[in-house]
Task: inverse folding
């Protein structure tokens, strides 16, 4: 249950762990581009860019048109949206915990006197 | 209240998670809340997870160990060693989960900056590998946080197959 999603997220995060691939994704977020266009800002060869694109394609982040001669690359929003959801979920977890810390700090700062007694010492 | 209560989470580079949050209390108090067992047990954890055991030897080279219990009686243990203890500005320690699926320790750095009675807490977690960070980003779900996992699962499923069951 959820294993397929977890696997897909693994692929997404692994694909995005590389700075060049993140830059490619950022560029494609502005619109489709050819391999030549994608390679232009980088100091690496087109075959190297193609390799990165294959990783992004395998992760489902990028698709390449089969029809057009120039075979432009396009960003697929689904996996990114899922990855963002996981990060948001992580944030929400800590947000909840920190709200409890807020309450505790409010207790501790009110007249310097905790309103709730400290946990009983078992000794 | 002057506090900007928003928690910011960033995942810069390939091994870090950075949590930033402002608290409406002096730095010394926030530092104490991060390092004092009887205070930690009152706030640490979420979504049904609570500390049931908490030991802190607050000195350089001293060790800490937290045991949390969660939904359905699930338990997890995390522990580590302090390498910087500078109340109230800085706390650095290692962290390892007893049953973590990735090798290595995480380096946790808390930086506290006090500004007119409020405290900015920036916690930087440096994971041993990109894979470790990916795993941890899923922690709140894989740790038996049933409801939210199911809810997210449902959302994702619905997104993929919009015609399928609706709760």
Result:
């Amino acid at each position: 249950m959820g294993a397929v999603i977890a696997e897909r997220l693994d692929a997404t995060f692994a694909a995005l762990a590389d700075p060049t691939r993140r830059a490619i994704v950022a560029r494609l977020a502005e619109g489709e581009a050819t391999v030549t266009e994608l390679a232009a800002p980088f100091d690496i060869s087109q075959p190297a860019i193609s390799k990165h694109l294959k990783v992004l394609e395998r992760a489902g982040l990028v698709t390449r048109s089969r029809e057009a001669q120039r075979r432009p690359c396009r960003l697929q929003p689904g996996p990114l949206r899922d990855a963002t959801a996981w990060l948001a979920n992580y944030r929400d977890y800590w947000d909840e915990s920190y709200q409890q810390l807020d309450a505790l700090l409010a207790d501790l700062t009110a007249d310097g006197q905790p309103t709730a007694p400290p946990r009983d010492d078992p000794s | 209240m002057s506090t900007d209560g928003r928690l910011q989470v960033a995942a810069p580079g390939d091994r870090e998670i950075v949590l930033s949050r402002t608290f409406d209390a002096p730095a010394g108090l926030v530092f104490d809340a991060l390092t004092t067992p009887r205070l930690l047990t009152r706030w640490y954890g979420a979504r049904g997870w609570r500390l049931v055991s908490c030991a802190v030897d607050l000195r350089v080279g001293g060790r800490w160990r937290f045991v949390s219990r969660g939904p359905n009686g699930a338990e997890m243990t995390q522990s580590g060693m302090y390498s910087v203890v500078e109340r109230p500005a800085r706390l650095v320690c290692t962290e390892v989960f007893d049953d973590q699926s990735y090798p290595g320790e995480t380096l946790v750095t808390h930086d506290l900056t006090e500004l007119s009675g409020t405290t900015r807490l920036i916690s930087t977690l440096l994971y041993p590998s990109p894979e470790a960070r990916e795993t941890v980003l899923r922690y709140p779900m894989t740790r038996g946080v049933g409801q939210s996992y199911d809810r997210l699962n449902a959302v994702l499923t619905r997104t993929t197959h919009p015609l399928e069951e609706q709760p």
In short: Residues 8-160 of chain B form a domain with the Alpha-D-Glucose-1,6-Bisphosphate; Chain A, domain 4 fold (CATH 3.30.530.20).
